Amino acid sequence: MESKFAHIIVFFLLATSFETLMARKEGDGSEVIKLLKESESESWCKGKQFWPELIGVPTKLAKEIIEKENPSINDVPIILNGTPVPADFRCNRVRLFDNILGDVVQIPRVA
């Protein structure tokens, strides 16, 4: 009985560590990308600064893509989603938040 209870607790702990998927209208994606591009033009950092297309991509591949698309990025740490990070801002850093499966779960951005 204890073993079954332990399995249930582990299941719920793992289930809560994943972000929920939210249903969106088909048109929402282009609006989000448009807003990201507008804020990108207002920034003082050079080059591409947002990669919404990398959500769900393996983090190691995403890291290569980011470094290729913006050569000024030289600090791309891979961080487990939910881990606290310092609030400082640097133009040469993009944090990749991944899940336990190694996939990107938040929009990578210069931070």
UniProtKB/TrEMBL annotation:
Instruction: Please identify the protein, giving its name as recorded.
Output: Type I serine protease inhibitor
Leader sequence range is 1-23
Q: Which GO terms describe its molecular function?
A: serine-type endopeptidase inhibitor activity
What GO terms in the biological process aspect are recorded for it?
A: response to wounding
Q: List keywords of the entry alphabetically.
A: Protease inhibitor, Serine protease inhibitor, Signal
Q: Its encoding gene is what?
A: Pin1A
* Pfam families registered for this protein in UniProt: potato_inhibit
Family assignment? Belongs to the protease inhibitor I13 (potato type I serine protease inhibitor) family.
